[in-house]
Amino acid sequence: MRDMMICAAIIFSLSEAWSQEPGTNQSISVNSSTSSPESFVVRNLAFNLGSEVNLTCSNKTWNEMMFVTWTIKLKNKECRIGYSNEGRSDDLCNDGKSLRNTSSAQSYLHIPNFSNNDVGVYKCESVYTGGNDNYLIHVNITVGPSISAWFEFKDNKMVAVCKAERGKPAASISWSHPGNSSSVETASSHGCFTVESRLVLLEGMDKENLSCAIRHPYWKGLRILTPKNLLKKGYIPWLCILIVAVIMLLAGFLLFVHKKLITLRRCQRTETSPSKSPPVGNLSTVDVEEVEPYASYVQRVNSIYCSSADLFT
């Protein structure tokens, strides 16, 4: 009897605790009933980068709605957008998001040009005549990857490579031919993923009809690639280095030949040029001009002397 009384007391105390109204952030359930204002229907949605996004949390029209409030928790901020049937509006986000109505007067939250900054948790609380709807929507982004495929040689073997870069979520890659393939997935700091699949080609494998199929939620269908370029990736840098080295060697050789030719021409001009000593003819003329006055003086003296001698004979 005593045990029964203790059990009854415990059950009564639990019912008292459940009947109390908990905080709105402490009672979050998945796919729960919307009869309680603390219960939220949880959704997980993803949208393509750059798309127009519309989020709804009630199928009631504006005539039935009393108010609707979106509480948004993003990576860099938290904000709120709301509207009441009294005409009051509240927008603390100021980033392009807005409340709109469909043609049938149903409310929805519009997000233009969806980007990574819009990723977060969107909590919607709407109250209408006779009830309320509460949703907790985890919104993520889908980014299409850049894709490429090529052949390369490694360890004396030809390898086919298929790559999907910077996608979110990670892409999946498969090959049209079975074989020894391996995939490596790496994540970037922005939450995007790069997947590279490598297939070692067996001897006699048909390379012409080899292809890889890439699947990603960003696309409606598959992307099929056929690797053909043998000079992609590791071969192109080495080829460029080789070309640059050849050009530099050729330019150096031409410069060396040009300098040698200039030096040879200067030597030839030096050997064939005349002597820089003063010419003999000019020196004789100078000597004659310097001696001529003296010769005239002697001749005159001699003539005077002869004239005097004639007078005495």
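The record above closes out task 2.4. Task 2.5 opens with a second protein, given below.
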Amino acid sequence: MQTLLSCFSLLMEASRRSRPKLPSGAPLWFVGTLWLLCAAVTAAACPHNCHCADRNGVVVQCTSRNLERIPPNLPKDTVVLLLSSNRIRKVPRETFTGLPRLRELDLSHNAVESVDVGAFEGLSESLRTLDLSNNQLSSLPKDTFAKLHARVRLSHNPWHCDCSLQEVLRELRLDPETANDVGCSTSVQGEYVGQAVTQVLDSGINFCNFHHKTTDVAMFVAMFCWFSMVTAYIVYYIKHNQEDARRHMEYLKSLPSAPRVSTDYETASSVF
């Protein structure tokens, strides 16, 4: 209703500017025409296959519509966007930047595998609830939820528990009612598979420390291999030079010695 009234006011203002001033008590047909035009404009703004209702802002209902992507050109005054039970696989960057009033976003029960950094850009102040539960998320970029104050649901996804997920959870407000359903489907440490991520982290486990230790071991192995190769090359080089020196000495020894006569002649010459 609020959207229709706003539209009606704008059309009346445009009419006053573009036409001579109407006499008091505008004809009923004129008012009705403007009202129908506003209704048509509002209906046209609603995405295809979705239902829109005005409740102090637009509620866009797109549940179970076999959508494969988030509809573009959503109404600017959308406050609730329901996209659950579709086939959406990705949330691209800056998808919701044109929705400054959006308070509730439901993307649950889809096939979401990836969320770009900046996907929720522009919603830091308005968004209060974000539901990404029951999707196919195993990891997320660290800054996915940067500056977002919404309560986020991430339950029932095939999460890979590692340092990256730990840093993501540190940046958001996880919904406490579903926090225990955010489980490790896989993990850098196998003993935590099947456990709730929050319980593992609360027990004092730090996946980032484990990641650093693994990196240190890998660097040590790489340095050891490099040092072994250098040492082997030096040993080979020394042995090769020794072999060349030995052959050279044998060659010199095999050369015929100078005649004795010439040696005596040189000695006599030096006396005189």
